[in-house]
Predict the structure.
Amino acid sequence: MDFSFLDVYKESFIHGFLTTIEVSIVALILSLVLGVIIAVFRISRVKPLEWFGTAYVEFFRNTPLVIQIFFFYFGLPSIGIDLSKFMVASFGLAIYTSAFIAEAVRAGIQSVNKGQMEAARSSGLSYIQAMWHVILPQAFKIIVPPLGNQFINLVKNSSVLALIAGGDIMYAADEAAVDYDVIPIYIFVACLYLVLTIPLSLIVNFMERRWAKQGSR
Amino acid sequence: MDFQVIFTKPNLLFLLDGLLVTLEVALLAIVFSFVFGTILGILRYTKIPVLSHLAILYIEVIRNIPFLLVIFFGYFGLKQLDIDLPITTSVIISMTIFTSSLIAEIVRSGLNSVDRGQTEAARAQGLSYIQTLWHIIMPQGFKRTIPPMVSQFVSLIKDTSLAVAISLPELTHNAQIIYNKNFNATIPLLLTVAVIYFVINYGLSQLSRKLEKVLSVY
C-alpha cells in the first residue's frame, strides 16, 4: 500500500476534512431550524400551513439530494442567481435533511400525550409557549436519537460536494486520484469519514439505550 | 426558462433511456441487497463467533462511509486491480454492497423486536435453533421490517443519481447532458427529473403504507 500521495496532497486533505466538518455543522443548524418549523406546520391546525408542511416533506424526501444540489449550483445561475459553493452545499444539504428532521420532530411531538397540550393551553399558555415549554422538552428524548442518525447521514451526504468541486474530503480524493493509485486513497478517505461517523454513531446508540431504559420520560 | 427543449422527440427519448437505466440498476440492486442484507442481518443476529463478528465489521464500516466512496471503489478501485466491469454492473455491485449493510441492520432490529419468550417457548417445544429462527422468529420479525426496508429502497432509488459522478447514463446524467447544451433549460430539466423521481418514490412509499396496513392484522 503506497500512501505517498499524502506528501503532496496533505494540505488538500486537511482542508477537505475541515470543509466537510464545517459544511455539515452549518447544514445541521440550518436543517434543525427549518425542520422544526416544518414539523410545527405539519401538525398545525391551519390547513394551508399543514399542506405546505406535508408537500415540503414529501417532495424533498422523495427526490435525490444530487438534484437539489444541482438545482442550486446549475439551475439558479441560469436565471442569474449565483451562490458560492459553500452556500450551495449548506442550503442543498439543509433543505434535504430538514425534510427528514421534520418527520422525526413531528413523530416526537405527536408521541407526547394530547392532555399535555390541553392542560398547558387551559393554564393560559399560548400555543407557541405550550409547544416550547411543555411539549418540546418532553418530546426531546424521542427526537434526539433519530436526529443523531440524520447528522451522521448529513456528514456522509456532504460527499456530494465533490460533484460540484466543493473542496470537501471526497474532492481532495478526486484530486489525488489523478496522479496516484486510487485504492490507498479511498482507504484513507474511508478512515477519515469513519473518524467522524463512528463516534457519532456510538453516541446515538448510547442515548438510545440509556433513554430506552428510563422510559419515554 | 425554456420548457420546450424537453419536449422534443430526441430529448424525450434520451431522458427515457436514462430512466430505464435508473430503473434497471435500482431494481437489480434492490433484489441483491435484500438477499445479501438479510443474510448479513441474520448472521449478526445469531451471534455465531467469527461469522457474526465479520458481519458486524462489514456493516459498521460500510454504513458509516459515504455511498459515493463505495461507487468510486467499485469503479475506479476495481479498474486499478485490472477488474474491468461494465459500468452498470459496477454500480449495481456498489449499491448492493452499500445498501445491504443498511438492510442488515433493519433485519437485525426486526428479529430483535420479537419477544424472547418466543424463542424459549419454541426451543422448549423441541425445535432446533435453526427451526426456531426460520419458523418462529423470522416470520414475526420480517413483518416489522417492511416500512424501514421500503424507505431504504426509496433511498437506493434516489442514490442511483450519485452514479452521475462516474457518468453512468442514468436519468440525472442524461438530463445533465441536455441542459449542458441548453443553458436556459436547466431549471425545467431539473424540475422534470425531480418530479419523475418523486412519482416513483412517493408511489413506492404509499404502496408500503398500504402493505403495512394489510399485514398488521394481528
Remarks:
- Helices of chain A lie at 5-43, 47-61, 65-78, 85-111, 114-122, 127-157, 169-176, 182-214.
- The two ends of chain A are 51 Å apart (CA to CA).
- Chain A has eight helices and no strands.
